[in-house]
Amino acid sequence: MCCLCNTKRAMCLLTCGQSIWVCLQEIMKWNGWGYSDSKFLYNKKGQAEFTGKRYRLSGMIIPGLREWMESTFGANLQHKTPAAPILNSSAVQPPTLNEAFLKELKSTGIPFSHDAEDRVFRSHGHCLHEIFALREGKIGRVPDLVVWPNCHNDVVKIVELACKHNVCLMPYGGGTSVSSALECPPEETRSIVSLDTSQMNRILWIDEKNLTAHVEAGIVGQDLERLLNESGYCTGHEPDSMEFSSLGGWVATRASGMKKNIYGNIEDLVVHIKMVTPQGVIEKSCQGPRMSTGPDVHHFIMGSEGTLGVVTEVTMKIRPMPEYQKYGSVVFPNFEMGVACLREVARQRCAPASIRLMDNEQFKFGHALKPQVSSIFTSFLDGLKKFYITKFKGFDPNRLCVATLLFEGDREKVLQHEKQVYDIAAKFGGLAAGEDNGQRGYMLTFVIAYLRDLGMDYYVIGESFETSVPWDRVLDICRNVKARIVRECKDKGVQFPPLSTCRVTQTYDAGACVYFYFAFNYRGLSDPVHVYEQVEHAAREEILANGGSLSHHHGVGKLRKEWMRETISSVGMGMLRSVKDYVDPNNIFGNRNLL
Amino acid sequence: MLWSYCHSGTRKSLFNINTRELSEVVVIGSTASLKDEEEFTDILEERRCTTDLGYALRTFNPQPYKGAPSSSTSDLKKAVLESQYLRYIIALETGSSVEKVRQEARGILEEMSHNLQLGFIRLMAYTVNKVFKRLFRSIYVNMEGLNMLQQAIQESPVILMPNHRSYVDFLIVSFILFTYDIPIPVIAAGIPLASMKVVGEILRRSGAFFIRRAIGSDKLYWAVLSEYVRTIVRTGCAPLEFYVEGFRSRTLKSVVPKLGMMDMVLEPYFKGEVFDITLVPISISYDRVVEESLLALELLGVPKPKESTTGLFKASRVLQEDYGCMHVNFGRPLSVRQLCEGKINRSEYNLIPRDLPQRPSTEIQDCVNWVAHLIVRTQEEGSLISPWSLMACLLLQAPITTLTEEGLQWHGLTEKTLWLRKLVLDFRGRLNWPDSDVMSSTVALHHSIVHHKAGRVCLVQDGDPASQDPLSPEEGVMRTAAAVLMLVSYRNQALHVFVRPGILATAIHITKSTQKDELFSFFCFLRDVFANEFIFIPGRASQDFDEACSLLQKCGAVHMSEQEVTVLETGLEVLSFLQKLLQPFLDSYQLIFRYLCENGAHVFTEKQFLPAVQNLATKLILSGDLHTFEVLSSDTQKNVLSALRRLEAVTKLRVNNNILSIADPYFFGKYIAIDVLLMTEIMNKRAL
């Protein structure tokens, strides 16, 4: 098992002092998403079930899922594609170690490991091709060494040593990247050291007068939120990956949270950043809320994707925990009306903490994930609701779509706000569809990633990708990208129609963020991952041709690098390049993301 | 569960063709024509067995484009008037109040709009059915194409793009689609049709919308029109039908496509407003064109009668005649997305609101031009060549006096026609070759042009036999020209099969070279000069050359090696036929070049030019120095001027007055010398 956990745990606990630390690696899957104990499976009766105890859905039977999977993908319980159960260490290349570096590293006392499992765990993010390869037991280039710095100073030491011995460093936070950012460049000949920030997970101080908190960058989202909650605060930053992704990762990729309408995206939340680079430490001299001191150096750091250094400490805005939270949902007769409503909400700048619009396919998907209802009464109510919407209101079940809402604040204001939003929705034919539907929508966010693993057990592969786009293009881009996916699948010989669906997940003054989900049954294909990648590539081309951005918050990594030049112009590339050349002339931070 | 749309085999083939295959389609053309013929179904046959009324009242329940909301014509007009684009243009119009301009826009839209109503479609179907049954023996339609169309219409907005050879075909597509339960198209028509009493309104309600002829720089009109067209495409509310050639071809030869409509139609794709657009080229071929005699007169400068309802009734005597068969060949639907792949970068629209008028980049313009040419070429390849066209080719190669006086030997003509038939098949042309008694029935059908008697065929010359006054020699030339030009029109129907090998044959004939590269550069030169005369897809000179080479080789006319093209003894007949086929064009161009050069004037108007050329040509014909009547055709004259403007030998000074000027006398001088030997020299110079 995890080398650090077994052999160095005592030492870690000693050096960590305060201990909220859990070794995530120990309780997480090595070849899939999330916690080992939580997964979808088909039980002996052939019913879908979500295991574990961590989620609202945990331990429940999901009666509709099987039929949905069979009818959507043409999947079949008889056709299984199980994953390799355990990591075969012999498939992992022996580490290329830089002895001199190792020797000096040992003298610093910073924990490290070159155990195969530790290295493989940090060799990937969650792109489809990465997980697919792991499930097949195929291991490519992996880091040669993992180090666990415990604090800022440890990082300074490691970076100094790396520079001295010309070792390649790759910062590793939560490992939730979906841009091939964690993939080791195969052409890298130096020893690659994965710098795991997970031990740097403390809140160093909370400043209640200024409402800021100074936090080590390795902390993962759920811990940060839980710890702040204990003091009555929150950051409000809730990316979908918040269970596992880290503060440093958010900064490095320009993350966006579900509730950005109230709290802002990471660039709005950050007050101060400390980053260790080969040239030394970069940080600002004060914590002024805004400065006019030339281009904001924070913006060289945010989105640098680990190419310039390691973010070690961040001062972030915090807010008192909201007094009241309320979920909600609205059903629209069609997607067009839904988008028009979101646009109007944005125009009036009255977006709730979160507002998301799912298209019809996702609505159906959400429906399929309804757990078994315990009472006849609930099922009766559900039936009644369905009757009301489809028969009485005349909504076409194959066209209607649903928006999920989350309101936060003090009770009175929430209720007022809620009314305002529902009134706007009514103008676009929207019908309030209850809190429960809303809440389930958000819960889906966290379990959907688990679902991919289930799909992969039955020949279904897929992934999501996102973009941001001006308002007037939203409908066009949704239609065109979805249609492109369908056509590309057909052209590439996919035997079954794919799931090609989208949702609008964020609203801005001038546009929106759109998320696409794409999955297909790959039976009959000899190289499904290649087909998948070709389709995703085509979909991205389509996004760009339709005025969408290269990424809203996933980042570029290595997956989307080829489009950087056309995205930011040659001069823009030159600017970024020259920063890299100055900060890291020897390419110590050699993950080769972005540029 | 399989792809829900895989159930139809044709569907799959629809979009699985990649651009490469597509270009092969263009190069290679149709497959064996015999097989194709079998696929055509006579749709009149069934009509003759049922009552017209019953047919007109049949249930009509087409499957529309799946993304299209059901919208009425008033919704369409409203959408156009309220569009951001139009609001922007209206705001730009200065000089009068916004309300006034809006009112004007509304007026334009009212004048333009179609008002498609099923009731009128039924009326139209009833009438058209009656008329067509009278005019034609059969109307053949390829069912395969219709099936593909039916599928395509559900997938994306469809643009129907027929060629236009006769007024008769204006409603033929609607008629067929009504018969086969496919959504009725809205059709772009010229405004004169709208002003016809009653008929104009019937056409409007049958789906026609009307476009003014000379729009010029009327920005508001352009804006309303383009927004109207784009809205139709964007919403996919109905298939859109328009003639990419811009107008009815008076010569029955394909016309170089006009780009205005094409541009409007494609823009929603370029701007990402639709996922894809499907273009369906439709080739309509006639055994005999209803207005054949009018066409020739028009070309000679006798103005065409104004479209009027009374005129239409007068024309009803044409109903007494037999016009043989009509073939409507629905081409394979083409995906605009696939056609444009790699040719354009749609992100050029990312930085300016799409509602604002924006001049498309040259990349986009070139692409539109390319697509338009491709469509016309595809129409050509889809059209069926009748035995009569082949005969016309041959008749025109006989000396004119033979034709008008003693006549051509029937036996020789039929034999040569059969020879030509084989050549067409070698060149992969599509033939319409009925099984029995082809030759004499063909000649009988065209009794207005030729006369077959006592084993000889001669040209019928129109004239008033009652009048005893002898014609002046000039009048005689015109009289013969009218008859010859009718023949020319039918020859033109077959021309597209012969053009490429014909140009190569001409190049061989003129240069007397066997060097492939020399021939190629001369081929390109001719292709360039005649680009207004024949349809060449831009940027495909070398493919055209290769095609020409392989066809000539296939029919045994030449032998090809890596570097050389050698004429074979057996190929002389073919080469001489091809070279003679194009000779009238060379002669005509040469004459006009010479006229322009020797005339001395460097500035002239189009109004002076046309009669002057006609006069000169008449003189030369009378003196026996000119052997073609085709230069008398205003179409040829206009094509030459367009070619010269394209080659920048002539420029148009003021658009309003149609004043043209010789731009560069020196440059122009080179072109005048399109003389057999000098041309080679020019080529050599150019090559340097």
Automatic annotation (TrEMBL), chain A:
One of its GO terms (cellular component) is peroxisomal membrane. Residues 139-321 form the FAD-binding PCMH-type domain. Keywords: Acetylation, FAD, Flavoprotein, Lipid biosynthesis, Lipid metabolism, Membrane, Peroxisome, Phosphoprotein, Transferase, Transit peptide. Its main location: membrane. This is Alkylglycerone-phosphate synthase. GO terms for molecular function: alkylglycerone-phosphate synthase activity; FAD binding. It catalyses: hexadecan-1-ol + 1-hexadecanoylglycerone 3-phosphate = 1-O-hexadecylglycerone 3-phosphate + hexadecanoate + H(+); 1-hexadecanoylglycerone 3-phosphate + a long-chain fatty acid = a 1-acylglycerone 3-phosphate + hexadecanoate; a long chain fatty alcohol + a 1-acylglycerone 3-phosphate = a 1-O-alkylglycerone 3-phosphate + a long-chain fatty acid + H(+). It comes from Astatotilapia calliptera. Homodimer.
From TrEMBL, chain B:
Keywords: Acyltransferase, Membrane, Transferase. It comes from Astatotilapia calliptera (Eastern happy). GO terms for molecular function: glycerol-3-phosphate O-acyltransferase activity; glycerone-phosphate O-acyltransferase activity. It is found in: Membrane. SUPFAM superfamilies: Glycerol-3-phosphate (1)-acyltransferase. Pathway: Phospholipid metabolism. One of its GO terms (cellular component) is mitochondrial membrane. InterPro entries: GPAT/DHAPAT (IPR022284), GPAT/DHAPAT_C (IPR045520), GPAT/DHAPAT_LPLAT (IPR041728), Plipid/glycerol_acylTrfase (IPR002123). One of its GO terms (biological process) is phospholipid biosynthetic process. Belongs to the GPAT/DAPAT family. This is Phospholipid/glycerol acyltransferase domain-containing protein. PANTHER family: DIHYDROXYACETONE PHOSPHATE ACYLTRANSFERASE ISOFORM X1 (PTHR12563:SF22), GLYCEROL-3-PHOSPHATE ACYLTRANSFERASE (PTHR12563). Residues 158-287 form the Phospholipid/glycerol acyltransferase domain.
